[in-house]
Amino acid sequence: MQAIKFEPWLRTMVWGGEKIIRYKGLESDLTKIGESWEISAVPGHLSVVAEGPLAGKTLEELVKEYKGQLVGEHVYERNGDLFPLLIKFIDARADLSIQVHPDDAMAMRRHNERFGKTEMWYVVGADEGACLYSGLAKSITPEEYAAKVADGTITDVLAKYEVHPGDVFFLPAGRIHAICSGCLIAEIQQTSDLTYRIWDYGRVGLDGKPRQLHTDLAQEAIDYTVQKSYRTDYEAVQDEEVEVVSCDYFTTSILDLTLPFAKDLSGIDSFMVVMCLSGSGSMEVDGSEVSLQQGETVLIPATADDVCFIPEDGMKVLTSYVR
After folding, report:
1. What is the C-alpha separation between 107 and 12, in angstroms, rounded?
2. Residues involved in catalysis
């Protein structure tokens, strides 16, 4: 089975802009694209293969047909026909809502859904002074949380970070967060669209109506633990694999390449998702070459034994698999 490219689903959001269109080199008159869903098994938004002998098939059909050959035997044993990751690019022209996601247990208890939403962000681009929120800056009780939502001061107790390209944030389920204006983000997350909106600055949605808040559900979902820092620190090293996040749901690494880089995949028993963050080049997967351009995402099946990344004039990629 060859590496697979999918058609991205461009999601219009009230806070979206035009950066994703330019970043991915697409032709479109759309001006409020907030998200590009690169690989998705979310019902109603299934990714469709863009080219090659599998063109037109959905990701759900591929998993049902190829099972462990596509996703890895241990991954299939754990998740069945549900592909476990949702891969996105996010463009925030305006601030996103303050929000939180449930963990697996709450997702099942409250929504009868298998996955909650643990995720991570890689900052692809950031305007000068761009920020995001991640975690609590001071200790509050659930009752104090509800009061601060009611009087519109919830952001006063959140940790706020000015961000720059290359910054990484890991967001386990339960951590309050929000992307703010001027950020272009690559996001890796569990396959879930469960989001509890805590605060939305009083604005209206694309339909002209106030967007729904989920105050009570969020109050139940929040992890009220305060940490010293919520930024994921790592040392950037050129032409080497740098692991930045490893959790129960995904392991993600950065490759900032000026030279070819080969990786043995035979021992991981998992698919690998490759997001090209900048530059261009190609990948050789088991001897078959696949082009790779900025803004593209490719799925390498679990049957692949090796991959070699070949940059042209420099190429930065994000790779994710399931341990």
Report:
1. 25
2. 197
